[in-house]
Amino acid sequence: MPEGDTVWNTARVLHRALAGVRLTGSDFRVPQLAATDLAGWTVRESASRGKHLLLRLAAPETAEQRTLHSHLRMEGAWRAYASGERWSARPAHLIRVVLRSATAVAVGYHLHELALVPTAEEHTLVGHLGPDLLGPDWDADEAVRRLAAHPDTTIGEALLDQRNLAGVGNLYKCEVLFLRGISPWTPVGAVPDLAGTVTLAQKLLAANRGRWTQSTTGSLHRGRTSYVYGRRAQPCRRCGTAIRKEELGERVTYWCPVCQPEHPATRPG
What is the residue-averaged pLDDT of the chain? Predict the structure, then answer.
């Protein structure tokens, strides 16, 4: 699931493969960048901002700097291969960009919002995002302030709104609310401890940095990594009640109706 920790891990993989390296070629397979040639450009760094990935580049003979931005959404992925290694991650028709160097190749599959902008203008692509849970500038107080500014929004929808805090996806939304004993339909204004909810979200994402198995339970064994997410009709790990699944906004949500009782201000029934 490409949530904030997955994008953070992906950025580090690309950084290890390409940072400080001069590109020998590029191949963009999207109309808006089809004629772009980054041969000779040097990759300065690879970074993440919430669910957005930013490859920062420097021109070969000038002070010009650009950023290659991509969003993974649900299906996107980047893979780094050694030069000459077979590209085996996804079918070739899903490739959107290829970046080549003398020693490594980075391949972007099924990427979204692919854009190349001056680095000084990154804010036009990610400036709307709230504090990044895994960023060096993480600000829990600001995240709480942004959440609290919309008290009538359900907490389930508010946590997914990247303008409030950047990096939480559906998995972490469901798990955080279970661990806090909060119904996903509770209005933000009725959540008793927003700061505690935000702090827990940051801790869960941070715990999964550097590994590809996302776990909120502490176990890395298959089938034991989550409390409620992906566990519809299975028994709650706390009370044994069947986990429920239902649509909330544009996404599905998983919760335990006993451990996460409905607040009086939530939806009926």
Answer: 94
User: Which amino acid appears at position 128 of this protein?
Assistant: H
Give the residue numbers annotated as catalytic, written as ranges.
2-3, 51, 251
Q: Please give the biggest Cα pair distance in the chain.
A: 65
Place of tokens 């390409």: 18
Residue in this structure with the two tokens 């298959």, named with its chain if needed = 222
Contact 227, 178 (CB under 8 A): yes
Q: Tokens 């953070």 map to which residue? A: 8
Contact (CB, 8 A) for 179 and 207? no
Check residue 268 and give its pLDDT: 43
Closest-CA residue to 177 (of 92, 101, 251): 251
Please say whether the beta carbons of 119 and 43 come within 8 A.
Answer: no
Long-range Cβ contacts of 26-30 (<8 Å, 24+ apart): 26/97, 26/98, 26/99, 26/100, 27/97, 27/98, 27/100, 28/96, 28/97, 28/114, 29/95, 29/96, 29/97, 29/98, 30/96, 30/97, 30/114
Three-point CA angle 128, 129, 133, nearest 5°: 165
Q: What is the pLDDT of residues 147-203, one digit of tens each?
A: 999 999 999 999 999 999 999 999 999 999 999 999 999 999 999 999 999 999 999
Q: Distance between CA atoms of 178 and 166, rounded to whole angstroms? A: 20
CA–CA separation, 106 vs 97, rounded Å? 8
Phi first, then psi: what are they for 43, rounded to 5°?
A: -80, 115
Length of the chain: 269
pLDDT class of 221 with cuts at 50, 70, 90: very high
User: 70 and 123 in contact (C-beta within 8 Å)?
Assistant: no
What confidence score (pLDDT) does residue 266 get?
Answer: 61
